[in-house]
C-alpha cells in the first residue's frame, strides 16, 4: 500500500482538550483503543554485493516490524509516573496461544521539496500463529555491538521466534504502544505513548517504562491508498491531510517527518 502521513506531538496536559476536539471533528465519541506490541527484526545475513565496473546492484535489505496486540489497562488521561507498576502481561500465553501478527516492511519515503505530506510505500502481510511449549522465564539477549539488555521471552519448538528464524530474521529490538485512534473518512488519527522494557527491574514479569518520560503523546495522521499510481486517490488523500493540518494548527503542529529517520534499509558497511 501507499501511505500518506503527517506527524506531531502534544504534551500530556493537552490530551483531554485534544480528545474533545477530535470528537467534535470526527463525530466519533468513543475512539478506538490501541494496544500493540512490536518486534523490530533484522536479517541474519546482511547481503554485501561485490562491486564490479559497469554493474548496478539494486538489492536492498530492510528491518521488518512484527506487530501484534497486548493486554493492558490504564487511564491515558493520567500521566505515567516513574514508580508506576506497569507490566506487559504474558508475551506468549500457552493457555491462549493463537495470535495474529502483521509483518511489515517500509520503503524510504519519497523525496521532494514540494511534498505536502510524507509519502511511503509499505508492504505487509498478516499471519495467524499458534505458540506451543512456552517458557516465559527465558529471554533473548541483544547481540548488537554497543547494545545490551534482554529482549523478549523465548518460546520453544513451534514458536513465532522460530518462524522468524526460518525466514532469516532475528529480534533486534521491541516496543509497546498504547493510545487511541479516530477516523474521519479515510483519514486515521492516532495518539499514542511508546513504552520499552525496563531492564533495571529484577522481577519475573516484564515491567515497562515510557520511552519519553515527559509523557508526551505522539500524534500521527495518515491515509492508506492501494496504489501510488492512483493519482486521484493520492491527490484526495493529500487534500484531506492538509485540511486536517489546518483545522488542528492551533492545537497540534502536524509536519512531514524526517525521511532519513524513516529509512529502514540495512546499512552494508
Automatic annotation (TrEMBL):
GO terms for biological process: regulation of transcription by RNA polymerase II; termination of RNA polymerase II transcription. Keywords: Activator, Nucleus, Transcription, Transcription regulation. InterPro entries: Mediator_Med18. Pfam families: Med18. The keyword Nucleus applies. It is found in: Nucleus. The keyword Transcription regulation applies. One of its GO terms (molecular function) is transcription coregulator activity. Its main location: nucleus. One of its GO terms (cellular component) is mediator complex. Component of the Mediator complex, a coactivator involved in the regulated transcription of nearly all RNA polymerase II-dependent genes. Mediator functions as a bridge to convey information from gene-specific regulatory proteins to the basal RNA polymerase II transcription machinery. Mediator is recruited to promoters by direct interactions with regulatory proteins and serves as a scaffold for the assembly of a functional preinitiation complex with RNA polymerase II and the general transcription factors. Component of the Mediator complex. Belongs to the Mediator complex subunit 18 family. This is Mediator of RNA polymerase II transcription subunit 18.
